[in-house]
Amino acid sequence: MRGNLSRLAVAVAAAVGLSLGTGTAFATPPGPGVTGTIIAQTTKGGTDRILRQTTVPPGRSTGRHCHDGPLYAYVQQGRLSHFDAGCAFDGVYRAGSRLTEPSGEDHVHIGRNLGTTPVVLDVLYVLPHGAPLFEDAPNPGCDFA
């Protein structure tokens, strides 16, 4: 438990630094084999902070989604390709990279693993108390899921 709290503390500290950085996680529907494990969770002042490890197998995606609060992530392994609501490529995040995703329905996105190794992300969700980790979003007509 102490190790998990330490990871959460590091993620929260990183989130403060990441708030100035650039702009990933799960959704409609995530590809087969995409998994997520909650590592730590805390609630304070009506805000949930959830640290989760997400794994996206090669050739799979998070699905299209958005979040009700900001998300901060660290790429432990692999390479995540990120696409916006209009299907446009908007970044690639390799092992050792950090990324942020703003909240709201106007920030729909999808993360895809176009590589040959699993993508492993440590993700910190900062959400209103009781909010889901993500909100599914429909495919706007992209030629990929």
Describe the protein:
With 145 residues, the protein is mainly β. The chain is built from one helix and ten strands, in the order αββββββββββ. It has a five-stranded antiparallel beta sheet with strand order 1-2-9-4-7, covered by helices on one side. A hairpin with a 4-residue loop joins strand 5 and strand 6. The radius of gyration is 14 Å and the shape is globular. 33% of the residues are buried.
Task: Give me a quick take on this structure.
With 145 residues, this protein is mainly β.
Question: What are the defining features of this structure?
Answer:
145 residues; three-stranded antiparallel beta sheet; 1 helix; 12% helix
Write the layout of secondary structure elements.
Blueprint lengths: L1 H17 L16 E10 L2 E10 L8 E2 L4 E7 L1 E6 L4 E6 L3 E4 L7 E4 L6 E10 L6 E2 L9
Antiparallel strand pairs: 1-2, 2-9, 3-10, 4-7, 4-9, 5-6, 5-8
